[in-house]
DNA sequence: TTTTAAGCGTAACTATTGTTACGGATGCAT
DNA sequence: ATGCATCCGTAACAATAGTTACGCTTAAAA
């Protein structure tokens, strides 16, 4: 695990902290689609992502959902951090977007490291900053943009985080993430195809550069 | 200032920290409507609110805006914190909702206090937690609810933070905060009046209990 | 008092999004 | 190959939200 850590976090943490982490943390591997965090769950450890991508979603009482953001290697979930340190239930859902590897850090160490390692403080605050900004961008999207723009930026974001121009999703999948209906997605995708921005296939969508 | 501090933050901070704050911080008073933070501004100090209420808004490139949340006494703006510690430009706008008093803490102390005071760490993390959750509630509103619901919850929130059942806003003001048009607001307000939930007057709205 | 500007109500219309319904295409299981 | 379920395209319609336009009311300014 020390190797995984060094590969992704050496530029962020002192070697001493890296050693501490590797002594106490647990490596966790998850398959694509696997659920990592459920709404209402209490969280006891925070994840450092070393491989793959995690999608983080908001859900309302009726089970409708909305994609908030993706996590990439070298990042952690500030929401989890927030729930851990304040001992509140999770208000988001997280699942593996692709096969992923995570380093799980028990929450007890957090406070200690905050005191002892400046790099840890920086990391934690940067995480909050990044996550806040991502959520704000989500706000921008749903508040200021129309569905066609939202759809296109969704496809592009997804392409980046999956590292491919082929989006392997059904229209229904997309509709869930954007909180709209399948018919609307199909309609707007068709428009994008006519504008030569994407190509539609069964079960996947190709983004044209 | 020590008095103001003790009144609002004694239950949060050790007396030693209170003393430190009062030695270095500056008391700032703002009038209703005064702008505290502009988009793009670099921030050098973080505010502790001791009196009044601050409204925090998001703005897009075209100048459209959307209300994110209010700050109350005993709270700080995690966005500001975030921008301070990571030295990024502000991506939000803040203005006084009512006449307010703030204690401005220069950012240099932040890191030091994080190391030395557990109560400061708790305060900072609680602030992040609260602000994240407020933004998420805003996401819920715009993603999952229709304009009539949003309008009503806007009125109720505003009533709470202004501590009165009389909302002194024009329909246009409300339209800006919700990022919709004046006509839509007037239309929906009229509906609410017919349902006996509010009473409409010129320049203000009364919420019926 | 008269004038002016801001605030509000309403109608008529458009645009966007959501819903229902149905049929064809595709791929998988038997 | 046949049957079956999922996926997708499309039409028709409904609901919601945004736009334009205009006139009345009210408060403040001249």
UniProtKB/TrEMBL annotation, chains A, B:
Family matches, as PROSITE patterns: CNMP_BINDING_3, HTH_CRP_2
Residues covered by the HTH crp-type domain: 145-209
Keywords: DNA-binding, Transcription, Transcription regulation
GO molecular function: DNA binding; DNA-binding transcription factor activity
Any single Gene Ontology cellular-component annotation: cytosol
Domain Cyclic nucleotide-binding: 9-76
Pfam family, one: cNMP_binding
Coiled-coil parts of chain: none
Cross-referenced PANTHER family: CRP FAMILY TRANSCRIPTIONAL REGULATORY PROTEIN, REGULATORY PROTEIN YEIL
Name of the protein this chain belongs to: CRP/FNR family transcriptional regulator, anaerobic regulatory protein
Organism the protein comes from: Psychroflexus salarius
Lineage: Bacteria, Pseudomonadati, Bacteroidota, Flavobacteriia, Flavobacteriales
């Amino acid at each position: 695990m020390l190797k995984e850590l060094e590969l992704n976090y050496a530029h962020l943490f002192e070697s001493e902290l890296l050693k501490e982490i590797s002594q106490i943390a647990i490596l966790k591997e998850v398959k694509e689609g696997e659920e990592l965090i459920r709404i209402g769950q209490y969280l006891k450890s925070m994840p450092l992502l070393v491989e793959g991508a995690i999608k983080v979603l908001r859900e309302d009482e009726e089970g409708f959902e909305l994609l908030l953001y993706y996590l990439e290697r070298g990042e952690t979930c500030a929401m989890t951090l927030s729930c851990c340190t304040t001992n509140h239930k999770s208000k988001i859902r997280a699942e593996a977007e692709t096969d992923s590897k995570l380093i799980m850090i028990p929450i007890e160490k957090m406070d200690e490291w905050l005191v002892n390692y400046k790099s840890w403080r920086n990391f934690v605050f940067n995480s909050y900053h990044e996550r806040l900004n991502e959520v704000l961008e989500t706000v921008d999207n749903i508040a200021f943009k129309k569905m066609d723009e939202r759809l296109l930026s969704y496809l592009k974001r997804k392409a980046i985080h999956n590292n491919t121009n082929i989006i392997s999703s059904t229209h229904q999948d997309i509709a869930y993430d954007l909180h709209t209906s399948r018919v609307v997605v199909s309609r707007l995708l068709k428009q994008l195809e006519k504008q030569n921005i994407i190509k539609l296939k069964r079960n996947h969508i190709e983004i044209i550069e």
